[in-house]
Design a protein that fits this description.
Length: 261
C-alpha cells in the first residue's frame, strides 16, 4: 500500500511531560527560522537534535545527528516519546506567533527517494490556526502525532491570539513507522475549513448571489484578484493577495463552480 499524504499515527505521547520540558525552555533559546523569506511574523525554533555539520542548529545538514543542549539536559523529551520506536535524525520545536504566516512552499528534499519522514506533534495548538497541506486543512490537535508529506504544497496561518508550537521530528523510514502511517487512526476527523478573513469572505460568497455576480464578469486574472480584495475590504475583511492566490490554487474547481453558477 502506498504512503498517504497525511496520517494521524495510532500512538501515544506523554503530552503533560512534553509540556513540562517545553516550560523549561527559555525565551533566549528561541531563534528565528533560517528560511527568512518564507514567513512573516514570528516563526522561530529550538533545536533538540540536528546534524553536526549544520550551518545553524535549525538548518539541515548531512552529518551524523548531534544531541543539542535542551535535549541533553532534559530527559523528559525522550521520556515523553518513549512509545515511539523511531530513529530520530532531527528534532525541533517550531513556534508560529499570533498573526504569523508561513508562506506556501514545498520541502523538496522530503520527496527524494529514501528521504526522511517528518512527524508533527502539536504541543500548543490553538483552534484558529490553519495548516494547509495540498489544499486541505489538517485537523491537528495537541498531543497527537501526524505524518505529513511536506514535499507537497503547504502553508500555515495563525489567526489566533496565542502562539502555536509543534515538536517536529525527522525520522528514518522503518517498518514500524511505515506501518503506523498506513494504519492511521480510523476516528481521525476529515480535513476541515479555514479560519480568518478569507474564510469569512468565502462564506459571504456562498450566501450572497449579488456578490458572486459582481465577480462573475471579471475575466482578467489580475483584475479579478484586485476586485476580490476591494470587495473584501469594503466589508471589513482583510487578507493578502498571496493568501488569495494560494486559496484559489487550493480550491480552483470549487471556486470556479461557485463563481460561474
Amino acid at each position: 500500500m502506498s504512503r498517504p499524504a497525511f496520517s494521524r499515527l495510532p500512538v501515544t505521547v506523554d503530552l503533560p511531560l512534553l509540556l513540562q520540558a517545553l516550560a523549561a525552555i527559555g525565551e533566549g533559546d528561541w531563534h528565528g527560522h533560517f528560511n527568512s523569506a518564507y514567513y512573516t511574523g514570528d516563526w522561530s525554533g529550538v533545536a533538540l537534535i540536528s546534524a553536526a555539520d549544520a550551518l545553524t542548529e535549525l538548518a539541515p545538514g548531512r552529518d551524523e545527528p548531534r544531541l543539542r543542549e535542551p535535549w541533553r539536559r532534559d530527559v523528559r523529551w525522550q521520556q515523553g516519546l518513549r512509545d515511539l520506536r523511531l530513529e530520530i535524525i532531527c528534532a525541533r520545536l517550531l513556534r508560529l506567533g499570533p498573526g504569523g504566516r508561513i508562506h506556501e512552499h514545498r520541502d523538496y528534499d522530503l520527496g527524494e527517494p529514501d528521504a526522511d519522514l517528518r512527524l508533527h506533534i502539536p504541543l500548543f495548538s490553538p483552534p484558529h490556526v490553519d495548516f494547509m497541506l495540498d489544499g486541505q486543512r489538517m485537523p491537528m490537535t495537541a498531543g497527537e502525532c501526524w505524518y505529513l508529506d511536506l514535499a507537497r504544497p503547504h502553508r500555515v496561518d495563525n489567526h489566533d491570539t496565542r502562539e502555536r508550537i509543534h515538536l517536529v521530528l525527522d525520522c528514518r523510514p522503518g517498518a514500524w513507522l511505515e506501518q503506523a502511517i498506513i494504519d492511521g487512526v480510523a476516528t481521525t476527523p476529515s480535513p476541515g475549513f479555514c479560519h480568518g478573513a478569507f474564510a469569512q469572505f468565502k462564506a459571504l460568497l456562498a450566501s450572497d448571489p449579488q456578490l458572486c455576480k459582481s465577480l462573475r464578469g471579471v475575466q482578467d486574472h489580475e483584475a479579478f484578484i484586485a476586485r476580490t480584495l476591494e470587495l473584501a475590504t469594503e466589508r471589513g475583511l482583510a487578507f493578502t493577495r498571496e493568501e488569495l492566490r494560494a486559496a484559489m490554487r487550493d480550491g480552483r474547481r470549487q471556486w470556479t463552480e461557485q463563481w460561474s453558477a
